[in-house]
Write a structure and sequence with these properties.
Structural class: mainly alpha
Oligomer: single chain
Helix content: over 70%
Largest sheet: none
Radius of gyration: 22 Å
Number of helices: 4
Number of strands: 0
Distance between the termini: 19 Å
Strand content: under 5%
């Protein structure tokens, strides 16, 4: 039990020790831009999910549609945007955990 407490305290200290700076306002993705583009990315994710339930033969039949390649590009573009959002979310979670660990240490 003592080892677990020491281990937890070590993890808290390491996490609290992470330093970071605030992003510059307006640089990169902003909350407003995320909200603006979210419906399109969710719609494209739904399209991608729908296509996953189709066989190759069914997709080949759809491929003659003039808009099919545009859909491919839309899905790929949204995938790239969502990957960026996942990276941001993981970084934000790490920052938040660091802040929580710092608060715990300061309260102790």
């Amino acid at each position: 039990m003592v080892n677990e407490i020491n281990s937890t305290q070590g993890i808290l200290a390491d996490t609290a020790g992470h330093e970071f700076n605030a992003w510059n306002a307006g640089a990169g993705l902003t909350p407003d831009r995320l909200v603006l583009h979210a419906p399109r990315h969710v719609r494209n994710a739904a399209t991608a999910l729908q296509k996953m339930y189709l066989s190759k033969a069914e997709l080949v039949a759809q491929a003659s549609d003039d808009r099919f390649l545009d859909m491919v590009e839309d899905v790929a573009d949204s995938a790239a945007a969502l990957e960026e959002i996942v990276i941001i979310m993981k970084a934000a979670a790490a920052r938040m955990l660091s802040a929580a660990a710092t608060e715990v240490q300061q309260a102790a």
